[in-house]
């Protein structure tokens, strides 16, 4: 469920106090509140369940936030308390600035196991954006014209890499991170908006297929997936008139695989296939 920061709270200890819910700004979140989740949490709290404090920060005046505090972690807990009509909530008052708070919010979600494939890709991309702002020299290896600098880069000496950070803080491997960043970068922003919270958002294979389409087609295909016209990208392409004839037909797919494999067979392999299919006489059978 909506739990405290794993990466941050293990390293820092902040003062805890009761804060009025009216004094907490909880907008501009990466992940929207799921009403059913908030309601379930509210029911649990109402029955006496104890929740860890939420994490807050004091916003900078330049941010234009009128409330005294901005939420860092614990959106569903705040929503649950509001559903119950509570006036205040226990909170850790952090010393994070806006960027540090964003990084903590991302890390809190990435260590969870209930993120769908799309949200995970978006959170990793946001983590990279914020992390690079906080670590402008990380991974650049200094002067790339220097032979010594090049050697140090190849040995991964010097500045810390983003993938190292992800492995340590969130337990994600380099390959997972690279695939997620590629997916996030390839999807049209409007297509992302349409797909968030949908069944397709949980299907990494279908997301990859959509990302492989030209960006100008992705929104049209996403709409067909969301309105129920199609349940796969292949079927959405057929409905949109973008797919070659026969795409999405299992028999057509089998035929194409046979043709592809046939083209890779040598003369001996082709002859074996012909004999197996009964297209030529089997010499062994006739002997």
From TrEMBL:
Keywords: Coiled coil. The keyword Ribonucleoprotein does not apply. Residues 17-110 form the ParB-like N-terminal domain. One of its GO terms (cellular component) is chromosome. The keyword Methyltransferase does not apply. InterPro entries: Chromosome_partition/occlusion (IPR050336), ParB/Sulfiredoxin_sf (IPR036086), ParB_N (IPR003115). It holds the Pfam family ParB_N. Residues 89-116 form a coiled coil. GO terms for biological process: chromosome segregation. This is ParB-like N-terminal domain-containing protein. It comes from Methylobacterium aquaticum. The lineage of its organism: Bacteria, Pseudomonadati, Pseudomonadota, Alphaproteobacteria, Hyphomicrobiales.
């Amino acid at each position: 469920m909506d739990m405290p920061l794993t990466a941050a709270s293990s390293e820092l200890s902040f003062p805890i106090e009761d804060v009025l819910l009216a004094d907490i700004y909880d907008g501009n979140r990466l992940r929207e509140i799921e009403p059913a989740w908030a309601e379930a949490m509210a029911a649990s709290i109402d029955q006496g369940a104890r929740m860890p404090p939420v994490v807050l920060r004091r916003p900078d005046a330049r941010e234009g936030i009128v409330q005294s505090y901005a939420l860092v972690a614990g959106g569903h807990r705040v929503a649950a308390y509001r559903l119950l009509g509570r006036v205040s909530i226990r909170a850790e008052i952090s010393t994070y600035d806006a960027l540090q708070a964003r990084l903590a919010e991302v890390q809190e979600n990435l260590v969870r196991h209930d993120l769908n494939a799309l949200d995970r890709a978006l959170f990793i991309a946001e983590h990279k954006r914020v992390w690079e702002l906080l670590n402008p020299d990380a991974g650049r290896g200094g002067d790339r014209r220097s032979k010594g600098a090049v050697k140090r880069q190849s040995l991964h000496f010097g500045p810390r890499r983003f993938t190292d950070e992800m492995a340590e803080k969130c337990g994600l491997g380099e390959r997972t991170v690279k695939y997620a960043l590629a997916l996030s970068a390839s999807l049209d922003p409007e297509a992302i908006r349409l797909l968030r919270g949908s069944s397709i958002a949980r299907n990494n294979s279908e997301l990859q297929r959509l990302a492989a389409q030209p960006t100008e087609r992705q929104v049209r295909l996403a709409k067909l997936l969301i309105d129920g016209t199609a349940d796969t990208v292949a079927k959405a392409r057929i409905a949109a008139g973008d797919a070659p004839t026969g795409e999405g037909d299992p028999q057509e797919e089998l035929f194409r695989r046979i043709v592809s494999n046939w083209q890779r067979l040598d003369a001996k392999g082709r002859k074996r296939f012909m004999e197996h299919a009964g297209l030529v006489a089997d010499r062994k059978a006739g002997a």
